[in-house]
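Hey,
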Amino acid sequence: MLNILILGGTQEAAKLATKAANLPHIKVKVSLAGRTSQAATSKYLRIGGFGGIAGLIEYLQAERIDLIIDATHAFAATISHHAAIAAENLQLPRLMLIRSEWELVEGDKWIEVENIESAAKILPDLAKRVFLTIGRQELTAFSQLENIWFLMRMIEKPASDIVLPQGLLLLKKGPFNKDSEKRLLEDYEIDTVVSKNSGGSATYAKIIAARELGIKVVMVKRPMLPQGESVEDVESALEWIQEF
């Protein structure tokens, strides 16, 4: 029996877990940080952090994990670095399942920034009405911008202690299509989009819509991830598993 730990939080992680669990001689554990209530209950799911690198190493040893697949969000850099260190410490094979980044194409009006704080800092000189699509954890960074109205879209409502910028909260889950995104941007008279470079197809329609409407996009670059073997799709990850 091969014990696999999938560090999850993405659609790809969920799909991989389901398919890997159906392989012979494979036992799957999926770990989620616990920041979402959307996670489906399953027999191979654990919720919550590990308590740093030491806690992760202890868990890997206790569960006799043979392989680690890091299928976390591209912006969940801390757990990715912890997984890399823990895997090296225990000499465990590790694979990263990472969506390919969105790339600048002709017609895009991107302003690339290093982090959320940088995005908030430059907005006063750029925008009056902003479509903010960065999730719900980092909204407070924009709460002090008094002369900007924000349309904030996310899957779930933010925690009650998060200070929101002025504007409208929109709770919706992708995938979205280009036409509906264009209508959204036009209806709310958006002049600037703020987005993380998450990659994938589920939310790329907003980038296409902004391009076609000539709207600026403040694009937050991905943080530096650890080096290591990586793939971009579930099928490639399954092939990697079956090599062992």
